Amino acid sequence: MLKLVVCIKQVPMVSELPWNPKTGTLMRDLAEGMINPDCRSALDAALRLREKLGGSVTVITMGPPMAEEVLREAVALGADRGILLTDRNMAGADTAATSHTLARAIQKTCLGFDLVLCGSSTSDSETAQVGPQLAEELDIPSVAYVDVLEITGRTVRMQRRADNFLETLEMELPGLVTLTSSGLFAPRYVPLGGLQAAFEGADIVSLDGAAVGLDSEKIGAKGSATKILNVYSPTAGKKNVVLTGAPKRIVEQLLERFDDKIGGAIGRDLKTDRK
Questions:
Q1: CA angle (123, 129, 132) in 5-degree steps
Q2: How far apart are CA 204 and CA 255, in angstroms?
Q3: Is 178 part of any domain?
Q4: Structure confidence by residue, pLDDT tens digits, 168-179
Q5: Strand, coil or helix: what is 119?
Q6: Same domain, 274 and 144
Q7: Could you list the residue range(s) of the whole structural domain that residue 243 is in?
Q8: What is the DSSP-derived secondary structure letter of residue 186?
Q9: Which of 22, 176, 205, 270 has a Cα-to-Cα distance from 60 of 20 to 30 A?
Q10: pLDDT per residue over 183-226, tens digit each?
């Protein structure tokens, strides 16, 4: 019987959000939240493993009280229980402080876990750091950017894309895996019975830092070594160019403008070839 833990994050349901200029953090209360896409893949992987091998699925998230919504959605999809880590002292955490908080919560509430599953990255920050850092905090092996995985005995067999190659890796449990949203595991629909389970007797608990045994100086903004100095939106510098003339002349114009980039891509000095 596998003990599976899935770390999910509530992200804004928009492509852009304003930043708080004083704290350098997103103003998340200005948009509705949803489960991060990669985290949904991690949840689907856990549910499939439980369906095949048996066990339990615990979902953990850290955030404001409104983050309970994604836990209820996870329960509706099939998770057995949800844990919300919410505390004003946790606000403004960087990836290291977030990983530290999640690790202590897992050690406190999920004794004897077999596998921790996370999304590879989140749509609101794209750092892809929390999963590997969490594995370091838990002192377990990890593999990132996984598309496919299966478990036989105490061995996890995984596949992931690396450049132009397909890697096949194995890892012994306990361990941690981060999953992409482009692999085998696709978000499932919430069944009607799941909606009822999510709001009637759902096993969801809220814990603050003290309940998990955390030092308030090591979590949130206080425990974050990363300090945001400036936040700005990059400006696009696109310029459309229309090339006219006979095909030979168009090719010549392309080479005149982009011979360095084209040559670098194919590994040849086009200027020398043209002489």
A1: 130
A2: 62
A3: yes
A4: 999 999 999 999
A5: strand
A6: no
A7: 239-275
A8: -
A9: 22
A10: 778 777 777 677 777 777 778 999 999 999 999 888 998 899 88
